[in-house]
Amino acid sequence: MTTGHTAPPGVIDLLGLLAYAELGSFFRLADDAGLAPSLRSKGQLAALAATEQAHYQALHDRLAELGVDPEEAMEPFVAPLDLWHERTEPQSWLESLVKTYVGDGIAGDFYRKVAELADEETRILVEGVMAETGRAEFVAETVRAALEEDPKLAGRLSLWARRLVGEALSQAQAVAVSRPELATLLAGKAPEAREGSDAGIGDLAAVSRMFASLTDRHAGRLKAMGLAE
Amino acid sequence: MTTGHTAPPGVIDLLGLLAYAELGSFFRLADDAGLAPSLRSKGQLAALAATEQAHYQALHDRLAELGVDPEEAMEPFVAPLDLWHERTEPQSWLESLVKTYVGDGIAGDFYRKVAELADEETRILVEGVMAETGRAEFVAETVRAALEEDPKLAGRLSLWARRLVGEALSQAQAVAVSRPELATLLAGKAPEAREGSDAGIGDLAAVSRMFASLTDRHAGRLKAMGLAE
């Protein structure tokens, strides 16, 4: 871990995770351009992607301000997040929108955790990012409108959303095992209280509870799009 | 042509052309992520792409303010610009950077033309876009540094730059024939003075002269990157 910063290691991990999540989402969203049904929706997709880039930049710069090499902080999360994207490649415009909404929602849960735990300046940054909710609403509305027009889509998109969160939990579980600081932090303990360098059984159980509450919030997001669990 | 706006038709054409050029560059740049040699350069690439998106958005919104359907204004330029991108797909990170620099340079020439001809508010917008030159400098510096490290690259990259501008001129020629208002405007005549609905021989000759001066400026940009004509 790079020295010279004041944030607890778990917070640096969370910021690195979120930074790469935003950068990865940026490239994947741009990749989905071929699925956009019109020039207008291509433009909307570019705007969504640019928002992810702005968030990436803010997190990247904050990590640098904290004295951390941003690329070093992102590195442990590159493989699991790339793997998530590879395993959940959208086959249609609606699948791409649902993925954006679900992915942003999960990121939001992690942002809230950072806001709870980080220093004042980082907290303000994170709250600024979370305040940009307009785009998520546009996505949910577009999906709802498509479902009203063709209710048969609901079953397939619900399955898709379940697969998205399932693959996310699978990657998150792997990350929790390999990053004990992060597991400790998500379990709600102060990092100083942690003993040894591996996540204990108690930590992993707490992480599972954290995942359970994440799944609950996922259900709320599905409902917002007009989808069932 | 949509009515209700005050800008001359050629200016609407130029704004539509530039809007789609920015949107197309955004998606193509993001597509080049796989060529980036590091996580850091991926981040820089995302920042370049986000700048293109911001320019697209500004032009898109200005077209709407002028009472024009932005997608309708962009439509005539989708095929030629997509064709240019298809015919000039970078095979390396340096080729991608050279393409960005050359493409932005050509766009800059068109922006200057808009600034000359458009209404006050559009001119201010366009000058704001053109003021963002920091990124172009970063690209030119990266290419220069790579050439200093490996001078053998110069020949191949110079050929690449020549192909980029050759393909651009070929597409521009096709656009000039199919869009007489644009040809008239680029030839420097007032649109009111134009007779008939096709570009005359005089217009096309003037367009060729405009292309010649564009090629001159291209040579200057090559030099800035350390490349020969």
UniProtKB/TrEMBL annotation, chains A, B:
InterPro entries: Ferritin-like (IPR012347), Ferritin-like_SF (IPR009078), Ferritin_actino (IPR059125). Residues 10-188 form the Ferritin-like domain. This is Ferritin-like domain-containing protein. It comes from Nocardiopsis aegyptia.
